[in-house]
Specification:
By secondary structure, the protein is α+β, with helices and mostly antiparallel strands. 14% of the residues lie in helices and 26% in strands.
């Protein structure tokens, strides 16, 4: 589950708490940050064609962890 995306300054990215949260030093991290609110593994692995960066993939609803679905659908688009 993703939160808001916001722009940061080098000064903000250089704060120790920020660096620990993103696992990068201030000058090595990008100027935009997105909050990660909740993370959980899928119930089982799925085959997805690999790509660079962040992308969307369609997965069967049976692999989505319990408590994550708000609407009953058969296939979901998931950001990978």
């Amino acid at each position: 589950e993703l939160g808001k995306t916001f722009e940061t300054t080098l000064e903000q990215r250089s704060e120790p708490d920020f660096q620990r949260a993103v696992a990068a030093f201030g000058s090595d991290s990008g100027m935009r940050a997105t909050e990660i609110r909740r993370v959980e593994y899928l119930k089982r692995g799925v085959k997805v064609s690999g790509r660079g960066g962040v992308f969307k993939a369609k997965v069967d609803k049976n692999v989505i962890p319990d408590g994550w679905l708000d609407t009953p659908q058969k296939v979901y688009s998931v950001t990978v």
